[in-house]
Amino acid sequence: MDITGGEGVDHIVEVDFAANFPVTSEVLKSSGVVAIYAAGTGQQPPVPLQFRRSNTVVRNVLVYDMPEPAKEAAIADITAWLEVGQQDVYADSEQRDWDSASQVTAMDNEGIDVAVLFPSRGLFTLGDSDLEPAFATAISRAYNDWLADFCSGGPGRLFGAG
To answer: How buried is 76 (Cβ within 10 angstroms: 0-12 exposed, 13-18 middle, 19+ buried)?
Structure first.
């Protein structure tokens, strides 16, 4: 909450609602929106849902169930975007392999103030109980070092979780 001055965040795009619910309920501001587009662990969140703020909107997003007009609008928007050449807007970032500086530039372009970076599936290798402890430690250290280095390119804007 320190990053948002205690206000909380407007929107959360959620990939594991159940596992992340404790954090989500803490950081979402009043009238905030949680858009759930993946099941993650497949667990159920605690019921009843008890958010810390009021007027929370929880949206389950499944493209197959979207109303036809919403799909058509999305297709039209993407087509228009492609026709005017906006797909090149991130060409520089792609050439730089989305380094932290290009990530911050993209955030500026999109009006995003802060990003919380969650671990990739690669970090889940630590869940393998057959790993040698020294190897597991080396994996963790390498990931943490990479994450700290990446986030240092956007102080106060890029934060690591995991």
So the answer is: exposed
Residue 5 lies in a domain: yes
Question: For the chain, what is the domain count?
Answer: 1
Burial, 157: exposed, middle or buried (Cβ in 10 Å; 0-12, 13-18, 19+)?
A: middle
| Residue 85 within a domain | no
Task: Give per-residue pLDDT as tens, 42-86.
Answer: 667 665 666 666 788 888 877 778 889 988 998 898 888 778 766
Q: Look up residue 130 and give its two tokens.
A: 């057959």
Model pTM above 0.85: no
The verdict on residue 26 lying in a domain is yes
Is 11 inside any structural domain?
yes
Over residues 26-50, the pLDDT tens digits come to: 888 888 888 887 766 666 766 566 6
| Buried-state track 8-42, b at ≥16 Cβ within 10 A, e below 16 | bbeebebebbbebbeebbebbbeebbbebeeeeee
Question: Hey, CA dihedral for 31, 6, 160, 132, is it positive or negative?
Answer: negative
Q: Residue 8 belongs to what domain range?
A: 1-61
Sole residue written with tokens 């929107």:
11
pLDDT at 62: 78
